[in-house]
Every structure is written in C-alpha cells, then in structure tokens.
Amino acid sequence: MEMLLDWRSVGSLIATVMVLRTAVQWLRRFLARVTPAFWAPTATILIDEADGSAITGLANDLYNAAQLYLGARCLAVAHAVRLYKPRGGSRAVASLPDAHTAHDTWKGVTVKWTSTARPVDRGGHGSLELQFLRQHRDFVHDSYIPHVIDEATRMRLTSRERRLYTNGEEYQRLWTSHAFSHPSTFDTLAVDPALREEIRADLLRFASRLEHYARVGRVWKRGYLLHGPPGTGKTSLVAAIANLLMFDVYDLELTTVATKSHLRRLLVSTTPKSVVVVQDIDCSLDLSDRRKKGGGIVDDNNAQMAMLPPSAIGRESISLSGVLNFVDGLWSSCFAERLIIFTTNHPERLHPVVRPGRVDRKIELGYCSPAALRVLAKNYLGVGEDTDDEVNGLMAQAEGLLAADDDVRITPAHIGEVFMGCDGAGASAALRKLVGELRRRRDHAPAPAVDALQPSALTAETME
C-alpha cells in the first residue's frame, strides 16, 4: 500500500511539473508581447560642444542652449553641478559635470541628460547625451528640442549677459569670450550733439528694418568706417553702439588670421545681434595691395610691415580687399543682423577699396569741439547750467580757444586726462589747468602743413 502511494505521489509531481512548464512557456510568450509597451528600447542623441574638428572647432548653438536650459531647469535636483562665475559676471553659471546625469520631464515625457568629455585625441570637446524611449523619438525631435532652444532664447533675452569675443592663434576654439560691461553710452560720448543723434537714429532705423532689407533684396547688415586721429573716441563710439543695440562684440584681430579660409570660418561663426570690430585695419593687414603703388606711401608701408608680428607677414591670401569682399560678396548672406565696424587713423590709405556696399557710412571723429567740451565737463566735473560764474567764465574761455584758433588741437582723450589729473580739486581748478594747456598749444603751435587735418567738428559722411 505504501509503495502504491509513493508511485501516485510521483505521478502527481510529474503532472504538476508539466503544468508549471506549460504555464512558464505561456508566461514568457505573454511577457515578450507586453514588456515592450512598458520597457521600450531607448534612443540616444549626441550633442557635441563643437563640430569635433581640431581645425575649425565651430561652436554648436544647440549645446550652448541645452547647457543654459539645464542650468535653469534641471540642475536644481541633480546630484552634482559645476558652478562657474565669469570674471565681472553678476552670478554663477551652473553646468552638468562630466559623467553626471539630470532628468527632465516635459508634457509627460521624461528624458535623461548626461554630460561626457571627448578624449583629447578626438578634439577634446565636451558633449551631452540625450536619452529617451524610442517610442518618443518623434516627440523629442519635433517638440522637445525646439522647446529647449526656445526656452534658452527666452532666458538669454530676459537675463542677457553680453560678451566680448576675441580670436587668437589657437585653432581648438575660434573665439574666447569675456563679460562685456563697457560704460560708454551715447549720452557720455564727447561728440557733436547733432552727429550723435544722427548716428543713434541711423542705428535704431537699421535695427528695426528687417522686412525692408528683405524686400529690397539686401542682407540685414550695416558697415561703418570710423576714422580720425588717435584719442578722438573711436573705441568709445564702438562700445556705445553695442550698448545701445544690446549687441555682443567680436574684436577681430587680423594679424592672427593665417589664411582666407580661416577668416571665413571666424566670420561665419559670429552670432546674430553682434558688432564685429576690426581696429586699425590699415595696420592689421598685409599692405601688399598698396606697396605696388608708387610715391611716398611705400616707405611708410614698409615701416608698418616691420611693426607687424611674424605670423602676419607673407600672407598673400589676406588683404583688405579680401576682407571687404567677404562683407559684400556671396558670403555676406551668412552675416545677417550684424554690424561691422572698421577703424583707422589714416583713411586715405584705404581708398579706393572702401566703396558703397562694403561700407555704408564713413564717420570722421576729429579734435575736440566746444560742444564736445561741454559733454566732457559734464561727465568729469559735473558742470551744468546751474554752475557759478567762475566756472562759466572758464568754460567760455576754453570754448573760445577751441572755436577761434585752428592751431589749438586737442583730443577728447587728452582733455579727459587733464580732468582726471584734477580729480577732487574742483571744477574751477580743472578748467584753469585746461585753459592753460590750450593757451600753451596756441602759443607753441607749429606752422600748419598743407595737408594737415582740419580741426573741424565731428562730421559724418554717408556713402550712397
């Protein structure tokens, strides 16, 4: 009887095993069908900081937008963040450290951001990985990424920290930037009031006429040539223009640009809403264009060439004509919503390559005029309409010397130095020192040369 029960138990056990085997097989088939609906395969998008080339290194706008978006939205709950405060910046900037992650949920879809670093032999740039469920691929491409870009753009506009960019000889990064906080404004410019308002109106008209430029078939850009003796306020005017339009500034140093293609990469990589400045353009470029011309300019050009660094000599592909051709040629279509400003102390050296289309407006900044002196006295000394009789008398003497005698030539920068040297001594002491300096220049002025620059008020010439 016991043996019979044992065999029956074995039979029941075998039957149970068969049932369990069938159930497991069915469960595996069921889970194979159901699991993808809950644990779908993931997809990954790689966003590099730059294009990955060690030669060009063009910045990736999407990478910058994503870092700004993450810093404002996702990093508050991240396990680790990297903080960086730019010199002169008002606040620290957060970013995601290498090999760290942050999660973001938008419209019910959760994505994961991971920061990685590329090895030096592959360019050395950072990158971001965006991971999400494969079933959300279309949503991420069509909705989420545009949302990141739009949010970053909005944040830049509401809390915009404008930047000053400079280029160098290194190729890993075309531009390096610093916070731009120059105090110059149109109200503090020591220029003739009529010219100041004319320039201001021209800039505001340019900034508001995108549709007009498109209608007439022109690229939305404008070019200025600022010329005049050193110390007449060319740099201050550039800073005031950038502050008025809230534009970034790109200070293009042409002596470090080795080839024409390198110049093209630099200019194409600038961003809209920016001012591109080329200072002392007649001294920054290979002067071979003018060396072929006869006359006394050749010796002067040789002296200028001797002042250039070795990297700027022998560059047959870089010339003034080449730079200006980029401004008004086919590549100018990549230069929309930008101002390009050239400065020079010797405008006569640029003729005839500077023509309409390449430069829209020539602005001459001359020696200090009585109107410019009144602006300087207000800025440095607080001189206004309610000042005492002594100060008014000294101002009248200084203005009379500037207006009546062509031999009294002094730049706004020099007057600023005179006023700064009397800081704390009062307006009367500063103006007496200025009047003495103006009389000294009048009494010791050399005989005027035939081709000397005239100390006229600041004028502007529109090239139409």
Strand-residue proportion: 15-25%
Would you report the number of β strands? 14
Structural class determined from secondary elements: alpha/beta
Q: What series of H and E elements makes up the topology?
A: HEHEEEEEHEEHHEHEHEHHHHEEHHHHE
Side by side, the strands of the main sheet go: 8-7-10-11-12-9-13-14
Low-confidence stretches: 286-309, 311-316, 450-464
The main pleated sheet reads as: 8 strands, mixed
Gyration radius from CA atoms, angstroms: 33 Å
Summarize the structure.
With 464 residues, this protein is an alpha/beta fold. The chain has helices spanning 2-38, 61-73, 137-158, 193-207, 210-215, 234-245, 260-268, 281-284, 288-291, 297-307, 320-328, 370-381, 389-404, 412-421, 427-443; strands at 42-48, 82-84, 93-95, 100-106, 109-117, 126-133, 163-167, 175-179, 221-227, 248-251, 274-278, 338-344, 361-364, 459-462. The termini are far apart.
Question: Layout of helices and strands, plus pairs?
Answer:
Elements: H1 2-38, E1 42-48, H2 61-73, E2 82-84, E3 93-95, E4 100-106, E5 109-117, E6 126-133, H3 137-158, E7 163-167, E8 175-179, H4 193-207, H5 210-215, E9 221-227, H6 234-245, E10 248-251, H7 260-268, E11 274-278, H8 281-284, H9 288-291, H10 297-307, H11 320-328, E12 338-344, E13 361-364, H12 370-381, H13 389-404, H14 412-421, H15 427-443, E14 459-462
Parallel strand pairs: 7-10, 9-12, 9-13, 10-11, 11-12
Antiparallel strand pairs: 1-6, 2-3, 4-5, 5-6, 7-8, 13-14
Helix pairs in contact: 2-3, 12-13, 12-14, 13-15, 14-15
